[in-house]
Amino acid sequence: MADIVTPEVRSRMMAAIGRRDTKPEIAVRKALHAAGFRFRVDVRKLPGAPDLALSKWRTAIFVHGCFWHRHGGCPKASVPATRPDFWAGKFASNVARDQRVQAALIEAGWKVVVIWECSISTSNMEASLLSLMNFIREGEPSTMIEIPQAATSNTVQAT
């Protein structure tokens, strides 16, 4: 299947996708700030430059887009019909990098949270954010959790 736009237009569209200040990330930041948490944004001194870092709580938060980071079973994690070999390699390298970054942070004693875009854009966003805040306050050091799509689960899953 051919792309419906020219390569130049597609390149411009892809280049416009930002690495920070996405709608889900801003929603998480607003909720955390309103709850009294203070954090730094896009902390480049930490492995993987977490979207948010709460130094007091030694917690790194990544707000992952389901498409780019391959949220399993999520409808937003579709695969483009054009250039399947390119996309398979791109997605595999993204997932491998995410795993390396998370392992490095955990080894450094940080708690790691991955919040999937779909858990913030659902009607159960409040439950997802409550799970996040509970983990920040009570989670064990050197652990990682994912906050999944709220429609499938309202609980935090430790990995």
Describe the structure.
This protein has 159 residues and is α/β, with parallel strands linked by helices. The protein has one domain: Endonuclease, Chain A (3-Layer(aba) Sandwich). It is 42% helix and 14% strand. It is built from six helices and six strands; from the N terminus they run ααβββααβααββ. The chain has helices at residues 7-15, 23-34, 66-69, 84-107, 117-120, 125-138; strands at 40-41, 52-54, 59-64, 111-116, 144-147, 157-158. Strands 1-2-3-4-5-6 form a six-stranded mixed beta sheet, sandwiched between helices. A hairpin with a 4-residue loop joins strand 2 (52-54) and strand 3 (59-64). Mean pLDDT is 85; it is low at 149-159. Pfam families: Vsr. Keywords: DNA damage, DNA repair, Endonuclease, Hydrolase, Nuclease. Belongs to the vsr family. InterPro entries: DNA_mismatch_endonuc_vsr, Restrct_endonuc-II-like. One of its GO terms (molecular function) is endonuclease activity.
